């Protein structure tokens, strides 16, 4: 099996755009946006999509998130959408001052306070595939 599951007996693969706002924690929130991973499916077959990314950079940090969308929900016009809901991974309440690189999080460090956010939203339009270079 390749990187993405493909069953050519079903509808061709497609992806969805998504954008949502996380819950507010520690006095801030994050925006998530991106494209789901490709999946074959129609508006009635209850297929799902993987989604993954990093949140917007707020309050000196970002969070990683991973999830699987809910099943396809048909619309009256013959298209469909998916609900997405997940928790972000942990990040420190106070950003670490580092000279080079990005945000560092070490799950073995139990002394620094951490937080996470909840995200919930719906996918948007269907696109044929992830735009090149996105």
TrEMBL record:
InterPro entries: YmaF
Name this polypeptide is given: Sporulation-related protein YmaF
Protein source organism: Bacillus mojavensis
């Amino acid at each position: 099996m390749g990187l993405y599951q493909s069953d050519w007996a079903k509808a061709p693969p497609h992806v969805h755009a998504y954008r949502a706002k996380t819950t507010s924690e520690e006095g801030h929130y994050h925006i998530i946006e991106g494209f789901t991973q490709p999946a074959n499916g129609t508006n009635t077959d209850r297929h799902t999509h993987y989604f993954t990314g990093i949140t917007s950079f707020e309050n000196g940090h970002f969070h990683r998130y991973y999830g699987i969308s809910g099943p396809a929900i048909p619309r009256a016009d013959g298209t469909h959408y998916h609900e997405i809901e997940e928790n972000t991974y942990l990040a420190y309440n106070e950003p670490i001052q580092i000279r080079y690189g990005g945000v560092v999080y070490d799950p073995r460090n139990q002394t620094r306070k951490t937080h996470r956010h909840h995200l919930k939203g719906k996918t948007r339009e269907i696109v044929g595939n992830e735009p090149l270079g996105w």
